[in-house]
C-alpha cells in the first residue's frame, strides 16, 4: 500500500491499481481478448514507420535523441527520400505510413510547410493510404495545415499523467501543454493517439492507473503503451527498465476502457522481450508498427538501445504477416 499513501487516489484509480498489481491477472487478459475479438475481429493492422529526422529541440530526460545528446549523429531525410521510402512501403502492401521525428522546425516551422508537402506527395501517390504524423507539440495552426494537407492521424503520447513527474522528466514542457496539443488534434478531426511509458523512474502502478484513466478522458482513438528502456547515454542510464508484464497489463486495461481503440504492440515491448511482443496480441492489442527507415539512418534514431536488423521492406512485412498467421490473426 506504500504508493497509495503518498497522494490523493480516487476510487477508480484504486480499483485499477489493485487490478494491475493483483496476483492473478488472467481474467482481465481474457476479457480484453474477448473485447478485442468482438470490436476489432482477428485483423491486425501493420503500419510502416519512417523515422525521417532525429533532430529535436526538446530535452526529454529519458530519450536518447534529446537535444543534449552530443554524441548523436543528427540526420534529416530529404523529401525525396521520405517519398521514395513511403512508395516502397505502399508497394509492399502497407496501408498506413507513419511519419515520425524529433521536434524539428525544419519540417514543422513555417506552419508545417515542408512536412505538408511530403504528406501531399504521399497522398498523390496513393490517396487511400492513411498518413499518420508523430512529430511532437505544434501550434494549432500547424496541426490544422497538416490536416488540410491530408494527414489522417496524429500520435502524441502524454508520456505520464503525473504532472509533477512530467515536469521532472521534461525540462522543456508541461503536461498541460501536452494535453492542449492532444485536444487540438482531436478537435481538428485527426484520429488521435496518445499513450505512455510504463515503469518510468518515479512512476508506480498508481501512475499507470492515472495514465489509463487519462486515455479514457481524452477519448483516444489509438494508444501506444510501451515500457521505459534506459538509454546508457542519458542521465537515466542505469535506471530500471519498465516491465513487460506491467506493459501487457496496461494494454489489456486500455482495451477494457477503450473497446474500439487501435492498440499497438509497441516496438519497445518487442525490444524488451520479442516473445512478449507476440503474447501482447492476446492481451487486447490489434496493431503492430514496423520500421522502414533506410539503414543509413536507422541506427541514429536511437531513442533507446535496440538490436536493429537490416531493413528489407518487403521481406520484413512478409515475416510479420507469417508471425501473425501463426498466431491465428489476419494481417492487414
Ligand atoms: N517527437 C515526437 C513526440 O514527442 O511525440 C515523436 C518522437 S518520440 C522519440 C516517440 C516516443 O518515444 C515518445 O513518445 C516516448 O514515449 C518514446 N521514448 C523516448 N525515449 C524512450 C525510452 N528511453 N524508452 C521508451 N520509450 C521512449
Task: Please describe what this structure looks like.
With 332 residues, this protein is an alpha/beta fold. It has one domain (10-323): Aldolase class I (TIM Barrel, Alpha-Beta Barrel). 44% of the residues lie in helices and 14% in strands. It contains 15 helices and 9 strands. Strands 1, 2, 3, 4, 5, 6, 7, 8 and 9 form a 9-stranded parallel beta sheet that branches. α4 (79-91) packs parallel to α6 (113-125) and α10 (205-218) packs parallel to α11. The longest helix has 15 residues, at 26-40. It is globular and about 50 Å long. It starts with a helix and ends with a strand. The protein binds S-adenosylmethionine.
Topology:
Elements: H1 2-5, H2 11-20, H3 26-40, E1 43-53, H4 79-91, E2 96-101, H5 105-108, H6 113-125, E3 130-134, H7 140-148, E4 153-155, H8 163-169, H9 175-187, E5 191-198, H10 205-218, E6 222-227, H11 244-257, E7 264-265, H12 267-272, H13 274-279, E8 287-291, H14 295-298, H15 313-326, E9 330-331
Parallel strand pairs: 1-2, 1-8, 1-9, 2-3, 3-4, 4-5, 5-6, 7-8
Helix pairs in contact: 2-10, 3-11, 4-6, 6-7, 10-11
The structure holds S-adenosylmethionine (SAM).
Amino acid at each position: 500500500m506504500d504508493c497509495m499513501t503518498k497522494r490523493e487516489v480516487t476510487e477508480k484509480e484504486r480499483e485499477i491499481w489493485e487490478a494491475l498489481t493483483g496476483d492473478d491477472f488472467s481474467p482481465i487478459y481474457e476479457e480484453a481478448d474477448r473485447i478485442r475479438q468482438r470490436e476489432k475481429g482477428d485483423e491486425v493492422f501493420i503500419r510502416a514507420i519512417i523515422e525521417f529526422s532525429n533532430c529535436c529541440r526538446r530535452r526529454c530526460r529519458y530519450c536518447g535523441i534529446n537535444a543534449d545528446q552530443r554524441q548523436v549523429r543528427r540526420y534529416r531525410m530529404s523529401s525525396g527520400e521520405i517519398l521514395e521510402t513511403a512508395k516502397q512501403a505502399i508497394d509492399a502492401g502497407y496501408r498506413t505510413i507513419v511519419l515520425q521525428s524529433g521536434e524539428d522546425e525544419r519540417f514543422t516551422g513555417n506552419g508545417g510547410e515542408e512536412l505538408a508537402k511530403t504528406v501531399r506527395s504521399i497522398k498523390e501517390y496513393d490517396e487511400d493510404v492513411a498518413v499518420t504524423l508523430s512529430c511532437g507539440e505544434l501550434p494549432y495552426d500547424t496541426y490544422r495545415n497538416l490536416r488540410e494537407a491530408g494527414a489522417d492521424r496524429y500520435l502524441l503520447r502524454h508520456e505520464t499523467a503525473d504532472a509533477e513527474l512530467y515536469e521532472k522528466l521534461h525540462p522543456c514542457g508541461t503536461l498541460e501543454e501536452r494535453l492542449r496539443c492532444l485536444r487540438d488534434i482531436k478537435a481538428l478531426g485527426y484520429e488521435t493517439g496518445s499513450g505512455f511509458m510504463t515503469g518510468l523512474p518515479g512512476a508506480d502502478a498508481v501512475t499507470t492507473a492515472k495514465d489509463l484513466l487519462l486515455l479514457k478522458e481524452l477519448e483516444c482513438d489509438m494508444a501506444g503503451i510501451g515500457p521505459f528502456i534506459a538509454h546508457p547515454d542519458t542521465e537515466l542510464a542505469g535506471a530500471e527498465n519498465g516491465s513487460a508484464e506491467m506493459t501487457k497489463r496496461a494494454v489489456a486495461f486500455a482495451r477494457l476502457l477503450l473497446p474500439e481503440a487501435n492498440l499497438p504492440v509497441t516496438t519497445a515491448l518487442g525490444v524488451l522481450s520479442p516473445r512478449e511482443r507476440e503474447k501482447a496480441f492476446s492481451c487486447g492489442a490489434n496493431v503492430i508498427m514496423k520500421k522502414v527507415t533506410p539503414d543509413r539512418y536507422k541506427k541514429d534514431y536511437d531513442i533507446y538501445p535496440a538490436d536493429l536488423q537490416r531493413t528489407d521492406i518487403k521481406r520484413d512485412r512478409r515475416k510479420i504477416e507469417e508471425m501473425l498467421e501463426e498466431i491465428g490473426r489476419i494481417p492487414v
